[in-house]
Write a structure and sequence with these properties.
This protein has 2 domains: 56 residues, no CATH class; 33 residues. It is 67% helix and 0% strand. The protein contains 5 helices and no strands. α1 crosses α3.
Length: 112
């Protein structure tokens, strides 16, 4: 049972760029009175959402965002540096294993 003293914190909704683009294009197709309001009610959106998304659409920002991913971009230099370090560690481990195998072979040759 949840604690009645603590009010749940509201979570902001986020919308992907493809969804925004779809809604703006659907809103452009609304010609008759009441269609736009019906669309917004059906999707659970406010007119302010549509107004800001239209501004983005006019600037071309929605089409640019539709294929991009959020977050930190991968640094190819860092990736190659990490890969190089990993390969060097593996090389060191294999050299040690080879040295041990050569010693075992050397001892086996000396046995009568």
């Amino acid at each position: 049972m949840p604690d009645p003293e603590i009010a749940p914190r509201a979570k902001r909704r986020t919308f992907p760029a493809k969804y925004k683009l779809h809604i703006v294009e659907a809103a452009q197709r609304c010609k008759n009175p009441g269609e736009l309001g019906s669309l917004l009610r059906k999707e659970g959106l406010y007119s302010s959402h549509l107004a800001s998304w239209r501004k983005l659409y006019e600037r071309g920002a929605l089409k640019e965002l539709s294929d991009t991913k959020r977050g930190r971009k991968k640094n190819p230099d860092r990736q190659s540096k990490l890969a190089l370090e990993k390969l060097e560690r593996e090389n060191q481990r294999l050299r040690k294993k080879l040295w041990q195998a050569e010693k075992v072979i050397e001892v086996q040759k000396n046995l009568p």
